[in-house]
Design a protein that fits this description.
single chain; 17 strands; globular; alpha/beta
Length: 543
């Protein structure tokens, strides 16, 4: 019996040593790749990895109890830092919680690395506790996958860093780890994600479009900070009517005011009525959320669409795509493109300005409607602040109704799949420990979907989270759908703020002074439903 006990102790030490060595090699490989941030959701199976990360004084560690919140926080962090961020979770269903963030990262080309602990391969397909087949679990949404066990070479340097990666680490069960015998992990100087340049032959589709089109329209979606200047220069040169979404950071640029029109409903009709029937659309940047883009799905036979984007997605089944670095394209190849001829769109701009004045008068008529509150909110946010717009109604209402006199330097969102999942966590990932003031604007269902997000918040940052509580998914209300689709509810968010000891205010109108600037503040903005309905009825009937 005594010999058996000694053998058992020796086996446990061997297992522990094997796990430590494997964990150390994984963490060291990612450090050399430039990973400085680890988002850790602890469990028994991934303790060897977490213990190793915790030994490094240079790695930034972010601890979570919710795997999904950890992954969306990492999504925001990777976008902020422009370098890979690792998410580490235990085995089993914890890995499945990462799929939504993997999908979002895939469509936005965000360099996330999912480091998932797994039971040894011999347990697969046995139904043993905490065992699932995690091999290549994320499928097409991770461009690089490795199934790693002790002795397996790590090939992460083959990863392009343009889509998520998945490292599945097979570990024996062990509890006690001592990394004092291992050398200090040196962090590689992180490099920003690089995009492949566009080939010179590709602008042919754009030249052909300009040669054929009489009344082209430009739509500018999400731009990286380094893309804004060259896109501005291009738009001024082209001298075409343009829709500037908020995420372009050009929406309120005064140099483009003479070209910009708001993305109102029935835009194509508005253009026809103004004598400028759209026959071609050039999209620059990310996939738009403007309603016009969805309308194009049924109109591609009559309206040609060409997209110019760093993302490899045309956004439409029949859309044409010029894919690559925008600065490279417009600076190196843009001179080959002739100045596009176009019809007269002065009447279109005039009609658009008239509708803007109509909207402002409607705000006075319905001051507590949701669109009016969004407009007034945009007036009190300092122009130096960053603004994060949650998907669904907030991003659309901001595009339509935010003030034209507030040229914010940073307006961001997560628009890869246009979903509401993980929005608060992503907002915090984009702003944690960053100087300045940060505002997030989300809907009530979006906040309810991410209730664990404030776990990571601290008082070093200044962020205000505005929750538009309109009692459900009112984006569906005007479609006259059944109430169960709207998900009406009676909830207030004060108890949520109290749970995390955050300051809280309820706004039925917009005050002149807002909450303290230190830490996270919760602002519940409650529009008057009757005024909101009346506003939308008049807005949509405007001709």
């Amino acid at each position: 019996m005594e010999r058996d006990q000694i053998k058992n102790v020796d086996d446990k030490k061997t297992i522990s040593d094997s796990n430590q060595t494997l964990a150390y090699e994984v963490v060291k490989a990612l450090a050399k790749l430039g990973v400085r941030d680890w988002c850790l959701s602890p469990g028994i199976r991934n303790t060897a990895l977490i213990d190793c990360v915790m030994t490094s004084s240079e790695i930034e560690k972010h601890l979570f109890f919710d795997d999904r919140a950890a992954s969306f926080f990492a999504l925001g962090r990777a976008r902020l830092k422009k370098r890979p961020v690792a998410v580490c979770v235990t085995s089993g269903t914890a890995v499945g919680e990462l799929l939504p963030a993997a999908m979002e990262a895939y469509y936005t080309e965000t360099p996330l690395i999912f480091v998932t602990a797994d039971r040894p391969k011999r347990y697969r397909f046995t139904g043993a506790p905490q065992t699932a087949n995690q091999e290549n679990l994320f499928g097409v949404y991770t461009s690089h996958f490795e199934d790693i066990e002790s002795g397996t070479p790590i090939r992460i340097f083959n990863w392009s860093m343009q889509k998520p990666a998945h490292l599945n680490i097979c570990l024996e069960e062990s509890y006690h780890h001592d990394y004092s015998r291992f050398p200090e992990i040196d962090l590689f100087l992180s490099r920003e994600v690089a995009y492949q340049p566009i080939q010179a032959k590709e602008p042919g589709v754009l030249i052909e479009l300009f040669e054929k089109a009489n009344n082209p329209l430009v739509v500018v979606g999400t731009l990286l900070e380094e893309e804004v200047s060259i896109v501005r220069e291009t738009l001024i040169k082209w001298d075409l009517p343009v829709i500037l979404e908020s995420n372009s950071c050009l929406r309120n640029d005064p140099s483009l005011d003479h070209l910009s029109i708001k993305p109102y409903n029935n835009l194509l009709k508005m253009c026809r009525d103004a004598g400028y029937p759209i026959d071609a659309i050039i999209r620059i940047g990310g996939i738009p959320t403007v309603r016009l883009w969805r309308d194009l799905e049924d109109l591609q036979d009559s309206i040609e669409v060409v997209s110019i984007s760093r993302l490899p997605f045309s956004g439409l089944p029949n859309g044409k795509l010029i894919h690559g670095d925008l600065n490279f394209f417009f600076r190196s190849i843009g001179n080959q493109i002739p100045n596009p001829g176009h019809g007269n769109f002065e009447k279109l701009l005039s009609n658009a300005r008239n509708k803007e004045q109509f909207v402002l008068r409607s705000f006075e008529k319905y001051p507590n409607s949701e669109p009016a509150l969004v407009y007034k909110l945009s007036l009190i946010i300092a122009k130096e602040a960053s603004v994060y717009l949650g998907n669904s109604m907030p991003i659309r209402e901001w595009d339509l109704f935010a003030s034209n006199n507030a040229p914010y330097k940073k307006i961001r969102s997560s628009k890869g799949l246009n979903g509401i999942d993980g929005q608060v966590s992503t907002f915090l990932g984009l702003t944690l420990d960053e100087p300045g003031e940060h505002w997030g604007v989300v809907g009530d269902l979006t906040a309810l979907y991410d209730l664990s997000a404030p776990w990571i918040a601290n008082k070093k940052s200044s962020y205000k989270l505005v929750i538009i509580n309109n009692n459900g998914g009112q984006i569906f209300a005007r479609k006259k759908l059944n109430q169960y689709i709207i998900n009406p509810h009676p909830f207030s968010f004060k108890a949520w703020a109290d749970l995390y000891y955050f300051p809280y205010e309820k706004w039925e109108d917009i005050p002149r002074e807002s909450l303290p600037t230190e830490g996270l503040s919760i602002i519940e903005m409650v529009p008057k439903l009757s005024q909101t309905n009346a506003f939308w009825e008049e807005f949509e009937s405007y001709d």
